[in-house]
Amino acid sequence: MKTLEGKVAIVTGSGRGLGRAHAKALAAAGAAVVVNDPGVTVNGQGREARPADDVVAEIRADGGQAVANHASVSDWAGAEALIDTAVAEFGKLDILVNNAGILRDRMSFNMTEDEWDAVIDVHLKGHFATSRFAAGHWRARAKQGEAVSGRIINTTSEAGLYGHMGQVNYAAAKAGIIGMTFVMTQELARLGVTVNAVSPRAITRMTGEDPENPERLATTGLPEHVSPLVVYLASNAAAHITGQVFVNYAGTLKLVKGFPAVAEQHVDGAFTQDSIAVAVEALFENESSRLEAFVP
Questions:
Q1: CA 286 → CA 238, 258, 274, 281, 291, distances in Å?
Q2: Which residues are catalytic?
C-alpha cells in the first residue's frame, strides 16, 4: 500500500515549479490531488488554464487521480470553492499544501501600494484563506465524531526568516506565514490536524532557471528535491510533528527555531529612562548578542 493511499490533497500553485513537483509526488504516493493554479505569470499577471490542466494530464497518465482548479487563492470565495472541489470530486480533504506565490520585487522606498498588496494577497491571505476553509472542513468532520488526520503544509522562505533586500513585501508575507503556522498549530491540534512550514530552495522560474549550472544545483537544488519532505509531513508517520519550520534544498534539511533570547537585563521595579539606556547597551556585551544586523 502506498504511503498516502486513500488520502486527498490540494496543492496550490501547482501548475509549475515546486507545486507541480509536490502534486506529482503526492499522487505517486497514492493521494488524489486537486491541482490548483490560475496560470499567472511570475508577477501575477494574466490567466491560463493549461499549466494546471497539463499537470493533471501527467498525473493521470502515470495512473494517478487528479482534477484541476483554476481559482486564485487570494480570492476568499475562490479559496472556499477550492476546498469544495476536493470534497465534491473525492469526498473529503486530508492534505493542504499551500505553495502559491508571486513576486513584485522593489526596494522599500520605491514600492507601490499595488506591489505590496498583490504579494501579501497571494502569499499571506492566500495561505490563510485556504487554511481557514480546510480547518472548517476538518472541524465539521470532527464534530460528527470522525477521527480526523489533517495536514497543512505551508511554504515560507529564508527571506521571511532572515530578510532579503528588495523583497520587503515577500519577506513580510513569508514571516507572517510562520506566525500563522504557529497559531493554527495550537488551534487545530485538538482536531487532529498538524500544521508545519517548509522553506524551500529550488531552481524555478521565480528564482531563475539554470538547472545546468552544477554549483547552483548543489546549493539550491530542484523542486523534486523538496517534495519528499512534503510527502512525509503529509503522511500518517508524521502525525507527531507539528508547529515546526524546516529549511530544505538539494541534500540539506534544517530544523529552524526562531527568536531565542540571547541576553537579559533586570532591575528592581521598572526601568527608568537612564537605566534602560544602560540595560540596552549591556545586552550587546556578550559574543552571542553582538550589535550587528540579523543575518543567517
A1: 39, 19, 21, 11, 10
A2: 157, 170, 174
